[in-house]
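Hi all, long-time lurker, first post. I run a small reading group and we've been trying to get comfortable going from sequence to structure in the token notation. Rather than ask abstract questions, I figured I'd post a concrete chain and ask someone more experienced to write out its structure so we can walk through it together at our next meeting. Sequence below, copied exactly:
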Amino acid sequence: MFDRSFIVFLLVGVANTLFGTAIMLVLYNVFGCSYWLSSFCDYFFASILSYYLNKRFTFHYPRTDLRSVVRFALNIVVCYLLAYGAALPLTRAALAQLDLSRKVVENVAMLVGTVLFMLINYAGQKFFAFRAETKV
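-- Answer (accepted) --
Happy to help. Here is the structure in token form:
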């Protein structure tokens, strides 16, 4: 599972994460958007960049077809819901004793969600979205 593609995935992920996280934190902290809208916009726009970069450079997937786009989008949605759905309650529980503001807790949760998303997204892209087609 952790071969050369994982290293390239991490490098692409750094660029993608900086791009998406900047969108998310600006929407949340500057424009006052909600936790869910801010994190959704992060993954919506960053996923477009991610699809192209990972298809081309990480997994060397040769085609752009509806099937790969649908699998990629489904993977992103599932990973997003799992990562951010878990990040908020886990962060609230972990920081409950610190008497922090909702805004601080949700900022931390967004960063936790980013890490969780990255970990499960790699597996989803490698083994589902851009998996090598087997010949029968």
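A couple of things your group might point at:
Helices lie at 4-29, 35-58, 66-95, 102-129.
The mean pLDDT is 88.
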